[in-house]
Amino acid sequence: MKQLPEITVKAVVLGVLLSMILAAANAYLGLFAGLTVSASIPAAVISMGILRMFRTSNILENNIVQTAASAGESLAAGVIFTIPALLIMGYWQTFSFQDHYWIITGIAATGGLIGVLFTIPLRRALIIEEGLQYPEGVATAEVLRSGEAGGAGLKFLIQAALIGGAFKFAAEGLRLWGGIFSGAQAVGRSFASFQFNLSPALISVGYIVGLNIAALVFAGGVIGRWIALPIIALNHDVPPDVLADSANAAVSYIHNHYVKFVGVGAMIVGGLWALINLRASLVRGIKSGMDVYRNVKEKGAASVERTEMDTPLPWVLVALVFSVVPIFAIYMTVVHSVVISALMAVFMLIAGFIFSAVAAYMAGLVGSSNNPISGVTIATILSASILLYILKVYGGANVGPSAAIFIGAVVCCAAAIGGDNLQDLKAGYILGATPWKQQVMQGVGTISAAFVMMPVLWLLHSRYGIGIQVNPNVTPLEAPQATLMANIAVGVFEQNLPWGLIMVGAMVAVAIIVLDKYLEKQGSGFRTPVLAVAVGIYLPFHLSTPIFLGGLIAYATSGVWSLHTDKTNQSGLLFAAGLITGEALIGIAMAFPLMIREFTPWKSIPTEFTLFDTAPLGPWPGVVLLAGVVYLLYKVALRDKTNTP
User: Fold this and answer.
1) Mutual angle of helices 260-299 and 338-366, in 10-degree steps
2) 2 domain-assigned
3) Using CA atoms, how far apart are residues 237 and 337, in angstroms rounded to an integer?
4) What percentage of the chain has pLDDT greater than the value 70?
5) Could you read off the pLDDT of 150-164 as tens digits, one per residue?
6) Which of 99, 276, 443, 593 has the most crowded CB, counting CB atoms within 10 A?
7) What is the signed CA dihedral for 334, 335, 340, 342, rounded to 10 degrees?
8) What is the pTM for the complete model shown?
C-alpha cells in the first residue's frame, strides 16, 4: 500500500490558522463558562471541507490538520485557567503588550511543548497496551473516515456558527435582551434563587459532554446554590449596601465570598483522588513505554513499523533540558533569585510530568473536554504555595503568591496539551498515521496558538474584564478557575483561607467518591466523577443550568449518557460545536475595535454598538429565541438517529 503524504504545506498552513482561531474561541468560552471543549471534530470537518478543494488531499493530511488545530484549544485552557490570576490578585494591573507579551507567550509555548514531550513516552503504554478508549480520538477518526461531515457536517457547523454569532451580538453587542434570566427572594435571613444564562454556547457544552457530566455539574450547582448558600446566609452577614441593592446581589456576594470555597475543597480532594486512583496504572504505563524505547535501541529503528515510530527519546530529553532555560528566565523576573528560580523550575518539571501523565490517562477515560485540568492545577498551586511560603518564612526567600501562579501556569499548559496529545495520537493510531509526524504537528500547533494568547487576553479584558469589572455596563467574564487559583495562592500566604468551608467541600467530595466507587462496583453506566460536581459547586448557578439542559437534549436524542462513542449524533455534535464557535468568535470580534483604536490612528472608532442602555424587555426575547435554538439543536441531533439504519 502506497504511503499517503501527511505533513504538507497546505496541511501545515491550515493547521496553524485553525490552531490560532480555535485557541481564541476556547479562551473566550473558558473565561465565560469555566469549561472548554475539544475542537478535534470541528477542526477535522473544516479541514475536509477546505482540503477537498485540492485534488491531492487525503485522510492523513486531514488528521495532521486536526492534530495541530486541537493543540490551540487545549493550550487556551492552560493559559486562561492560570494567567488571569495574576490580574485578579493585583500582581499585574492590566495586560501590557510591552511588559507581558513575551512572558505569556513563553509560558504558553514552553508549557505546551513540555506537555507534548512528557506524553511521547506514554503513547504506546496508554493507547496500545492499556487500551484506553480516548473517546474524542475515536470520534475524530470516525468523522475523518466517514467523509459525511465534509458535506452536510460542514453545513451544520457553518449554520450553527452564524446562529450563535448572531445571538451573541444581539444580546451583548446591541443589548436587545438581558443575558441572564434570574430571580431571587429573601426568605428570613436566607435566600432562594434561580438563574439561567441565555447562551447557546452553554447549552452546546452540555450537549457535547453528555447528560452524565452535565447532570453532575448541575448537581454541584444545586449543592452550592440550594443547599450550601441558604445555610451560609444564616450564619454570615451580607454588607448593608449589597443587601440594599437587590436579593440577586446578595446571593452573588454569598456565592463569591463563601460558597466558592466549598467548591475549592471538593476540587482539591478531586485532584488528589485522581493521582491516588491512577498511581499503579501510571507506573505500569511509564515502565512499558521505557521498555519499548530500550528494545528500539537494541534492535534498531528498522525493527519498528512506521506507525509505531515516536519521536526518539534522546531528542525528547534534550528538548526538555532546553525547555527549562526560558522557564528559568521567566521565574527570575518574578523572584530575582537564582536558587529560588532553579527550585521553582525543578518543582515545575516534576509536577509537569506527574500531571501530564495524569491528564493523559484521564483523557483516555473521560475525554479531553472532561479532563480535570483545573483539579491538577489546584493541587499544583496549593502545593507550590505551601512550599514557597515555607521558603519565605524559614529561608527568607522573597516570594509571594504570584510565584506559585507562574509555576501552576506552566504545569497547567503542559497537562492540557498532554491530554489532547494522546487523543490525537489515538485517532492517528486508528487511521494508520505516523506518530512522530503527529507529535511534530502538535508542537507546531502549540507554538502557533501561544503567539495569539496574549492579544486574545488583552482584547477580552479590555472589552469585558476578566474576573474584575472594567466597564460599568458590561458584565465581566467570570474566569472561575483563574479566580480560584488566585484565591488559593493568596490565601496560603495570607493564612486566611476559610478552611472550615474548604473542609465541608472536601467531605462532600469524599461522599461523591464513595458513591462513584459503589456505582463502579454495580457496573452502572452512570458515574459520578467528583471534579464535575466540584466545578458545579464553584461555578455561578446561571452557568450550570443551561449546561444541564444541553445534557438533557443529548440524552433525549441519543439515549446514552455520553455522546463521545455514539456515532449516530455526528450532526448534533457539529451543530453544537458551531454554536460555541460562532458565539466565541463574535465575543472576540466585539473587542477588536478596542485594538484598532489603541494601535491605529483611528481614535474615534466606536467600541460600543448598543441600541439601548438596558434591555427594554429584559431577558424575555432571549428566552423565546433560545427556545428556538434549542429546538433546532434537538432536530439536527435527532436527524442522525432517525437516519441510522
Assistant:
1) 90
2) no
3) 44
4) 85
5) 455 667 778 888 999
6) 443
7) 30
8) 0.75
The DSSP result for 338-368, as a single string, is HHHHHHHHHHHHHHHHHHHHHHHHHHHHH-S
Q: Encode pLDDT of 17-31 as tens digits.
A: 999 988 887 788 778
Q: For residue 179, give Cα distances in angstroms to 77, 161, 439, 475, 615.
A: 24, 18, 41, 9, 9
Amino acid at 109: A
Sign (positive or negative) of CA dihedral 423, 375, 554, 478? negative
Q: Is residue 205 part of a domain?
A: yes
Of 175, 184, 151, residue with least CA distance to 48: 151
Span 571-610, pLDDT tens digits:
787 788 788 878 877 876 776 676 576 556 676 777 667 7
Per DSSP, 121 falls in state: G
Classified as helix, coil or strand, 185 is strand
Q: Flag whether 392 is in a domain.
A: yes
Are 545 and 196 contacting, i.e. CB atoms less than 8 angstroms apart? yes
Residue corresponding to grid cell 499548559:
413
**Number of residues that make up the chain:** 645
- Cell representation of residue 89: 490578585
Please state at what angle helix 620-643 crosses helix 541-558, rounded to 10 degrees.
30
Radius of gyration of the chain, Cα coordinates, nearest whole angstrom: 23
Of residues 38 and 76, more confidence is placed in 76
Summary mean pLDDT of the chain: 82
- Residue pair 542/120 in contact by the 8 Å Cβ criterion: no
Closest CA to 259 of 539, 547, 544: 539
CA distance 244 to 465: 25
- CA dist 18 and 25 (Å) reads 10
10 Å Cβ neighbour count for 230?
A: 18
Beta bridge partners of 194: 183
DSSP 233-262: HHHSPPPHHHHHH-HHHHHHHHIIIIIHHH
Q: List pLDDT tens digits, range 434-465.
A: 898 999 999 999 999 999 999 999 988 888 88
The values of phi and psi at residue 470, to 5°, are: -120, -30
Q: How far is CA 202 from CA 58, 98, 216, 483, in A?
A: 34, 35, 15, 20
Q: Would you say 59 and 431 are in contact if contact means Cβ atoms under 8 Å apart? A: yes
Confidence of residue 632 (pLDDT cuts 50, 70, 90): very high
Pull the grid cell for residue 510. 469524599
Question: How many domains does the chain fold into?
Answer: 1
Residues 39, 137 contacting (CB under 8 angstroms): no
Does some domain include residue 465?
Answer: yes
What pLDDT band is residue 566 in, cutting at 50, 70 and 90? very low
| All cell numbers assigned to 586 | 463574535
Can you give the residue range of the structural domain that contains 497?
A: 9-643
| Cα–Cα dist 466/31, whole Å | 7
**Which secondary structure element, helix H or strand E, spans residue 499, and what is its range?**
helix 499-522
Q: How many percent of the chain have pLDDT more than 90?
A: 22
**Strand pairing class (190-197; 180-187):** antiparallel
Q: Which residue, among 617, 450, 496, 475, has the nearest Cα to 104 in the 3D structure?
A: 450
The Cα–Cα gap between 643 and 645 comes to 6
Q: What are 51's three cell numbers?
A: 482540503
C-alpha–C-alpha distance, residues 480 and 382, integer Å: 16
Instruction: Tell me the average pLDDT across 349-372.
Output: 72
SS3 call for 183: strand
Contacts of 206 (CB under 8 A, 6+ apart): 214, 217, 546, 547, 548, 549, 550, 551, 552, 553, 554
